[in-house]
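haha ok so turns out i had the wrong file open the whole time. this is the CORRECT one, sorry everyone. sequence first:
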Amino acid sequence: MASRFANISNKISMAAGNYKTFLLAFVIIVVWAVSGPIFGFSDTWQLVINTGTTIVTFLMVFLIQNTQNRDAAAVHLKLDELISALEAADDRVMAAESIPESQMTEWQKHYTELSESQDSIEEDVKELRESLPKR
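then structure:
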């Protein structure tokens, strides 16, 4: 059942992101607006578009969330593969999405300091290269 839902949601999200779908929605809105005078701008006329857009919005929220969850999981898998392939990498980082917020903040500080020290080293190397006599 989950696999079936995934297939259907992928197809719908691909269709929803297509320019033809936007054009179809635009045409529907134009037809609805043009039909206003025909129906005397009645409450039913307004209810049709309000109900339709509410239903589509409600369903799209779940579809978008599903798509984002799948994309995030795929990115995590790819990053985990890269981390595991590097000997110098800290394997604990592969589970970063499941650590407490306080620990994540500590790790962020650690990697910020590491990056700043790396920048400092690179600046020192650059200065050293510039001070060497040119060939």
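The chain has a mean pLDDT of 89.
again sry for the mixup
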